[in-house]
Amino acid sequence: MSLLAELQDIVGVEHVLKGDETAPYLTDWRGRYTGKALAVVRPADVEEVAAVVRVCLQFNTPIVTQGGNTGLCGGATPSNKGDAVVVLMTRLNKILEIDTDNDTITVQAGCVLQTVQEAAVQAGRLFPLSLASEGSCTIGGNLATNAGGTQVLRYGNARELALGLQVVTADGEIWNGLRGLRKDNTGYDLRDLFIGSEGTLGIITAATLKLYPLPVARSTAFLAFNSIADAVKVLSRARHGFGSALTGFELISAYCLGIVAQVFPQIKLPFSPDKSPWYALLEISDNESEDHARGRFEAVIGDALEAGEIVDAVIAETSAQSQALWHIRESIPLAEAATGKGIKHDIAVPVSKIPEFIAHTNALLQARFPGVQHIIFGHLGDGNLHYNVGAAPGQEEGFLSLQKDVYKIVFDSVYAVNGSISAEHGIGQLKKDLLIDYKDEVELALMRKIKRVLDPHALFNPGKVISSVEF
């Protein structure tokens, strides 16, 4: 019996896509990578996933797991060899359990993030992971890349939100680790090995996730600054004044605000893009009352204004105004895409080093590539910058060919301040060849050993995360 025939026996003929049917699943979201596949298989449950893995193992066939295909580093795209099976997880989309006494929700990996958020709200709870792609990304992909988003400052990355996992191993076995425990000190933490592994060690099929009380009130402000150093000062002031109520502190450069105005003229901006060089979106979530939230908010922002750290501030008066301010932030990637392809970076830098890093790296880039655009925005509260570089006006043609040189300048600067070349997007195939330059040799050796043990036949997502590893 052939591989395709056995796969059809497992999931049904209609759920094994071949030929032109596979096209929607072969190109990454950014359009940077397009591969080939023997087939795209759509299992319905964990048992079918395990059976698919066992058959692929029998035929020595690589497996690429895919959820919503919203990744930014090509981690869910097969290679051009055409020898892989893409395992599409979108049929595993059930909410399995909500336990409000334990504040947990257990879901299958193909659940769309927004569906999980809405199920939590219906139960009177909050699932705080929030991303621009939340309407299409899946929980399995969020965990596989250890996704971040806009509320990491308060709630942490996907790893901090996961209590238990169900995983199909490289042998086609099922590990049932769906425990909703905050404390479980019974040996090695296998959960954290699979989270962030980008499908290279196993296939996450379900997860038990943390829930939180719904905030009673939220307060949102759009702030203008004279310098990035002032923004960092206000962040420190906000941490001290709000404590754990501080949920978001999103940095936006004047350039980013300008391209939003250019591409989306219907969006009403709180300030003209040329008012200040830097802006931030600040939000707190309060569990007491609207009045309590508003009082704390105005006190901290007022003190920063008096100290000259803030040039101006607009405070949302209603939920609709708050959503409108967030819509500005969420529109930046779309505006960036509409104004031309740039060289993107998802980096993490100690917050205290961000002013120095930006000034130093901007100067290096201008010296080497005069006139390039600095498209800087991101999660200042946790040190994660989307430090993107656009072509100088009139030099868009062939700009992406400079990626290697731009990467070298930016990543060397990141490394110099003890930062990371990937904060929340993962490694995928985009950055796999760079790890050897920016990761400790012992750390890389340990990663290779783990890969050999958990995926001894190197069939799970080959060519991703770790490059040129001999098994």
Architecture blueprint of SSEs:
Elements: H1 3-11, E1 16-17, E2 39-41, H2 46-58, E3 63-66, E4 85-88, E5 95-99, E6 104-108, H3 113-122, E7 125-126, H4 139-144, H5 152-155, H6 158-161, E8 162-168, E9 174-177, H7 190-194, E10 203-210, E11 212-213, E12 217-225, H8 228-242, E13 246-253, H9 254-263, E14 278-286, H10 290-306, E15 312-315, H11 319-338, E16 346-348, H12 354-368, E17 373-379, E18 384-390, H13 403-416, H14 435-438, H15 441-454
Parallel strand pairs: 2-4, 3-4
Antiparallel strand pairs: 1-2, 5-6, 6-10, 7-11, 8-9, 8-10, 12-14, 12-15, 13-14, 13-17, 16-18, 17-18
If you had to describe this structure to a student in words, what would you say it looks like?
With 471 residues, the protein is an alpha+beta fold. It has 3 domains: 3-88, Uridine Diphospho-n-acetylenolpyruvylglucosamine Reductase, domain 2, CATH 3.30.43.10; 95-213, 2-Layer Sandwich (Uridine Diphospho-n-acetylenolpyruvylglucosamine Reductase, domain 3), CATH 3.30.465.10; 217-417, 2-Layer Sandwich (Alpha-Beta Plaits). The chain has helices at 3-11, 46-58, 113-122, 139-144, 152-155, 158-161, 190-194, 228-242, 254-263, 290-306, 319-338, 354-368, 403-416, 435-438, 441-454; strands at 16-17, 39-41, 63-66, 85-88, 95-99, 104-108, 125-126, 162-168, 174-177, 203-210, 212-213, 217-225, 246-253, 278-286, 312-315, 346-348, 373-379, 384-390. Helix 1 (3-11) runs antiparallel to helix 2, helix 8 (228-242) runs antiparallel to helix 10 and helix 9 (254-263) packs across helix 11 (319-338). The longest helix is centred in the C-terminal third of the chain and has 20 residues, at 319-338. The chain is globular and about 75 Å long. The two termini are 29 Å apart.
